[in-house]
Design goal:
The chain is of the alpha/beta class. About 35% of the residues lie in helices and about 20% in strands. It has six helices and seven strands. Pathway: Purine metabolism; IMP biosynthesis via de novo pathway; N(2)-formyl-N(1)-(5-phospho-D-ribosyl)glycinamide from N(1)-(5-phospho-D-ribosyl)glycinamide (10-formyl THF route): step 1/1.
Length: about 190
Amino acid sequence: KRVAILISGRGSNMSALIEAARAPDYPAEIVGVLSNRAAAPGLAIAAADGIATASLAQSKFPSRDMFEDVMTQILESWNVDIVCLAGFMRILGDDFVNRWAGRMINIHPSLLPLYKGLHTHERALADGAKVHGCTVHFVTPGLDEGAPILQAEVPVLPGDTPETLATRILVEEHRIYPQALRLLASGAI
Ligand code: GRF
């Protein structure tokens, strides 16, 4: 299956997917990386790996629909079967989401349905949560509401800050995102 990754920043989950897809038996190939920020460090990493890249600022378009129409054109030009959101910090409109129904997945840094949206680590710590984690889920029009595919739990430790917790969870993100993409691309789900 041909996969595009949508990013906005660092791209460490993107890198984990690119690395996994190098295995000869991996059922997906990363064919393009699209960012809504030209300065996203992940773009340069993908380009250095010989992957097609594009960047597209929503602010340059008169409407979100027009921005997403151009994203769709780019994804179609890459013949994409599956879209992976990896730190893509824009909410996508219903038309775009529905076009990719069952073929678009996201990584979210919480044990969904807990802590949808932003600042998940701060909120988990403020609640005194004993466990926290991450979820790969299908993307549906409701923010962070699609069916979960894989989750990983980590303990919350005494003295944790949002940063230490995020670092512990990121290790698990990099482990489960490639596994979840494998399940989708192989047809297992
Ligand atoms: C990750 O924590 C991911 O769960 C969240 O945004 C962050 C992206 O990090 N959606 P990176 O760009 O993959 O390094």
